[in-house]
């Protein structure tokens, strides 16, 4: 920019000597050259020194982060049972100088790793649970690592590690006195089931944050502007009276009849709900043998919609249907809440900050081997390969109704402004919760996405630490989007459902 004003200098300064004049003429000529260059090719925006330090930190720790992610990938532990995975992350955080508090919210695998003091307090979420039955080797053909065992079909091995990589990079800048405030990493277990973050939220663990960040493995790189579905999870149990099904069935009252009438009622209800509603159920208990009238039967049922208040309306109808089914069958009934999740509140101001950092970092590039791996694995799965998309997607507008799926990040987003990133860790349009995602999450395609996430989240956190106005604007948008909705944990009474074994 300063060059733009240089050509006018000679006309402002009296020309006292030839020598000076010559010098100024030369300077003028040079200035015009610079002006032309400046007009032709505007200087590309660059990451500032602190953000470059974040990138350098992630690069310095690259091998450790990959090792950590692969370790958790190998442990592949399911919800509330992530003992080794949680310990690996917490130990690494501790070794990097963060203060670790283990077993928060009465969940042994939940932890907090923190560094710094005072405000702002910036949080970052890290998940690490796997999915049952998805064990898979890091290769493009389907073959389990251990038959029947869990696998990281949602990429949470990378999620936890990538977020921690960003937190460690920020910790280093705070330690060097370049940033002021507190960085707090949340080790959040049980996302796939049992709503780990909601238990942590119920304990008030997110309340003092200025802003929170998260990311999720995906097949595109983007600052996430799409919400998720709100969901409620119930068990509906019926209790009847057993009798011989042929000899004296009139003495029996079938709990299974009630369960069937209940699900029939639910299926009739489908005609009278908004198209955005999803209801799905399974029979958990339906009797043991045909010649005994079943005295117990139970249905496990989820209701989803784009917003919490949409779910609440259907929830009331479901309760009436359960009551009616029990009346018709002449049995008792009980409805038990397992958990519920809010939809994700997006934050465009925060997403824009993230987007600009992603663009400065630039796309992820792939080797020929990685592109061939992607082609082969998609072919093996049975869908056409569309390569791997390492580009940065332009910021999207929020759709009225999100795609199917829910996350307990939604609850956090009702307590504190949340910025969410999606990063490519698998081929474009990969089938999620499948062996394809497990395989890619244990090799370089996944590793590259994870390191990209560490960099994008770390650089965005630099903005959040340094720019008070940005934090205020993000908060303002959060308050507007939240409106009058008061967050309330949708959880049963009592302690979290931690397995005893
Ligand atoms: Zn996930």
Would you give an account of this structure?
The chain is α/β, with parallel strands linked by helices and 501 residues long. Helices cover 42% and strands 15% of the residues. The protein has helices at 9-12, 18-40, 49-60, 62-75, 83-95, 156-175, 196-202, 255-269, 308-329, 348-361, 368-381, 409-413, 435-441, 444-466, 468-482, and strands at 99-102, 111-116, 121-126, 182-187, 211-218, 222-223, 230-239, 278-285, 296-305, 332-341, 418-424. The protein has a seven-stranded mixed sheet with strand order 1-2-4-3-5-11-6. The chain has a four-stranded antiparallel sheet with strand order 8-9-7-10. Residues 154, 156, 191, 216 line the site of zinc ion (ZN).
Write the layout of secondary structure elements.
Layout: H1 9-12, H2 18-40, H3 49-60, H4 62-75, H5 83-95, E1 99-102, E2 111-116, E3 121-126, H6 156-175, E4 182-187, H7 196-202, E5 211-218, E6 222-223, E7 230-239, H8 255-269, E8 278-285, E9 296-305, H9 308-329, E10 332-341, H10 348-361, H11 368-381, H12 409-413, E11 418-424, H13 435-441, H14 444-466, H15 468-482
Parallel strand pairs: 3-4, 3-5, 5-11
Antiparallel strand pairs: 1-2, 2-4, 6-11, 7-9, 7-10, 8-9
This protein binds zinc ion (ZN).
